[in-house]
Amino acid sequence: MSVSIEVVSMDVPCSDMRVMRGKKRAYLYSANVMTDSYARWSFLANEGDDVVTFVECVREESRVYPRPMRATSLENEPFLFSGEHVAELFSQVCSLEACSDIACVEASNGDVYYYSTTHLSPRRAQRLAEYTSVLRFEKP
Q: DSSP letters along 67-99, please?
């Protein structure tokens, strides 16, 4: 029995396609449909190393925006981490010398934020957390 394979050339535009290579697989995404940041977050979440995901997200938020990252943001897609899991991750990160820049602040209403001291001072992170969680709702 012989198998016939027909190769069809298609003129399909794909200049928007991006590739991210993980430990075990490659991930493709369309830059027209997904931002590079969200693709990176999805990549990290799918790679399955929650500590690396936590540290990379905290550092990126501090470096790019610059602001502390609200702990509850990791409860959303693509992470879906519970609040308890996020607290556990921070506890694990605190014991890692390579992650000594990762710190935590709390707004006066109890909202928890994480940040990198490489990109934000403790005072700046505290002020931004307080503004985001409390002060911006008090001012007209």
A: SPEEGGGGGSTTT---HHHHHHHHHHHHT-GGG
